């Protein structure tokens, strides 16, 4: 697959050949679903907690005698039927995380990249750049030359603390490194900006 490479100013520079095995393969919707579900599950804290009748603080004395009052029999005030009592089958702290096969996750990433690369309006390859000053205004001056409505994903060839610092407080902007992609961010990204070096490394990393 051939894609145009744009400068920081949004002008066409040259053409780059991307790996078809990564950017032009058949999309596997099932693997995408599993990868996103896995990421969301692993992010859950699992700290929700409701007290059972055993954990509720209160007296264990019988509220009134069993017979002769005309009221329904009651054993203790911590019953789930009473206000302030315990909760039946309430949430308990748990670990929601689980793992999926590496092949499924890699297939999901390649499927999402192929899905996004098919749309030239949202998928752009940009020449490698950095923000040496680490200032937000210098980064936004570059991003305004490209489609930026909605969530924008910038895929880096390597960790760049300065560019991440510059975009740390930019709304709807995410940075991903080529070997640590997140299916959820990538799939729901409206604008995918891939640095030229990262595009080459993606073909090598996921194409092998």
What does the model show?
The protein has seven helices and six strands; from the N terminus they run ββαααβαβαβαβα. By secondary structure, the chain is of the alpha/beta class. It folds into two domains: 134 residues, Ribosomal Protein L4, Chain: A, CATH 3.40.1370; 51 residues, no CATH class. A six-stranded mixed sheet has the order 2-1-3-6-4-5. α2 crosses α3. The model has no long low-confidence stretch (mean pLDDT 93).
Overall CATH class of the largest domain? Alpha Beta
Distance between the termini: 17 Å
Low-confidence stretches: none
Determine the strand fraction and express it as a percent band.
5-15%
Instruction: Let me know the CATH homologous superfamily of the largest domain.
Output: Ribosomal protein L4/L1
Strand order of the largest sheet: 2-1-3-6-4-5
Order of helices and strands: EEHHHEHEHEHEH
Report the biggest beta sheet as strand number plus sense, adding barrel if it closes: 6 strands, mixed
- Choose one word for the global shape: elongated
Radius of gyration: 27 Å
In total, how many beta strands?
6
Count the helices. How many?
7
Mean pLDDT: 93
Properties at a glance:
32% helix, alpha/beta, six-stranded mixed sheet, 208 residues, Ribosomal Protein L4, Chain: A
Task: Lay out the secondary structure.
Elements: E1 2-6, E2 12-17, H1 20-23, H2 29-43, H3 102-117, E3 123-126, H4 136-143, E4 152-156, H5 161-166, E5 173-177, H6 183-188, E6 191-195, H7 196-207
Parallel strand pairs: 1-3, 3-6, 4-5, 4-6
Antiparallel strand pairs: 1-2
Helix pairs in contact: 2-3
